[in-house]
């Protein structure tokens, strides 16, 4: 999801547009039975503030962005939730 949001920012910058809303709909989303506790943990957590994505320069082409062109400000996260790989 984050990579599509980043792409939205890049396309908006290249087109000279303001970034709008990124709307995503999941298909074939499911929860494995051995991940129920992890899902309960995830759902019990309060959302954190959204970070801000800054793009430091506007290259001539969308294909010319580099890693250092991006800055993520104010990113916060909860501790990792570990779970076994479902087989």
Task: Give a structural overview.
The structure is a single chain. The chain has 87 residues and is α+β, with helices and mostly antiparallel strands. The protein has one domain (2-73). Helix content is 26%, strand content 9%. The chain has 2 helices and 2 strands, in the order H-H-E-E. It has helices spanning 2-15, 36-44; strands spanning 52-55, 70-73. Strands 1-2 form a two-stranded antiparallel sheet. The longest helix is centred in the first third of the chain and has 14 residues, at 2-15. The two termini are 24 Å apart.
The spatial strand order of the largest sheet comes to: 1-2
> Could you tell me the number of beta strands?
2
Query: What fraction strand?
Result: 5-15%
Task: Please give the domain count.
Answer: 1
The overall pLDDT, averaged over residues, is: 93
Radius of gyration: 17 Å
Derived from helix and strand composition plus strand pairing, the structural class reads: alpha+beta
Q: Give the termini distance in whole angstroms.
A: 24 Å
What is the tally of helical segments?
2
Helix content: 25-40%
Parts with pLDDT < 50 across at least 5 consecutive residues: none
Order of helices and strands: HHEE
Gross geometry? elongated
